[in-house]
Specification:
Rossmann fold, seven-stranded parallel sheet, two-stranded parallel sheet, 41% helix, SDR_fam, Sc_DH/Rdtase_CS, NAD(P)-bd_dom_sf, SDR family oxidoreductase, oxidoreductase activity
């Protein structure tokens, strides 16, 4: 077996997940690319013989189990999980959002992150040498909500609790866990923000964005630390976005 480190990146078919996966491949990791759509995953993997494409629904327990079984069968261990998969879901206030729309966001953002963390934790706990790192993608919404985003905001606040719980539970097994909170990285998912986003006062204004490659650089830093050091929380935003202050 090679001593190359093994990473699993969810939501690796586009946006921030694709940037993170490609950065890890460039840094010498073997990377399992997880996401719902096979073709975008293959595009992320293009040109690399260290990528494993594993179509996965992170909200489905059987699909997540198959993902980690496949990684373990291929490479025998997991050194890093980047819990990146997620969705904004339907917009709606707490008085408007349907149960099915709520459930879809919770399943993708929160249950999916829990299931992937659970399987990664088990592998990291049992492997030799023991240990590993889990990095959860929170969001600026883990701190401060946008209007009409109750499901997304609630799940991202919950990711912070998940991060802290994994950090505590992982201490006896050399498993570190941290969270990266991102504000307005330029991706397909955030394209509308650059043209006009609803503000707290009800107005619609364009917001600045920044290159998603800077998120990948931050994740590489977090992942590159020895397991006795950890970035617990890291926030990366477009400098002039309306996050700090009273808008």
């Amino acid at each position: 077996m090679s001593d190359m480190r093994v990473a699993v990146v969810t939501g690796a078919g586009s946006g921030v997940g694709r940037e993170i996966a490609r950065a890890l491949l460039g840094a010498g990791y073997r990377v399992a690319l997880a996401g719902r759509r096979p073709e975008p995953l293959r595009e992320t993997a293009q040109g690399s013989d260290a990528a494993l494409v594993v179509p996965t629904d992170v909200g489905d327990p059987e699909s997540v189990a198959a993902l980690f079984d496949g990684v373990r069968d291929s490479w025998a261990r997991v050194d890093l999980l980047v819990n990146n998969a997620g969705t904004f879901g339907a917009a709606g206030s707490v008085g408007e959002l349907s149960y099915s729309d709520w459930q879809a966001v919770v399943q993708a953002n929160l249950t999916g992150s829990f299931l992937c963390a659970q399987h990664a934790f088990r592998v990291m706990r049992e492997q030799d040498p023991q240990g590993g790192r889990i990095i959860n993608n929170g969001s600026i919404s883990a701190h401060s909500p946008r209007p009409r985003s109750v499901a997304y905001t609630a799940t991202k606040h919950a990711i912070t609790g998940l991060t802290k719980s994994i950090s505590l539970d992982g201490r006896p097994y050399d498993i570190a866990c941290g969270q990266i909170d991102i504000g307005n990285a330029a991706t397909e998912m955030t394209a509308g923000i650059a043209t006009g986003a609803v503000q707290a006062d009800g107005s619609v204004r364009p917001e600045p964005t920044f290159d998603a490659r800077h998120v990948a650089d931050a994740v590489l830093y977090m992942a590159g630390l020895p397991l006795n050091a950890n970035v617990q929380f890291l926030t990366v935003t477009a400098t002039a976005m309306p996050f700090i202050g009273r808008g």
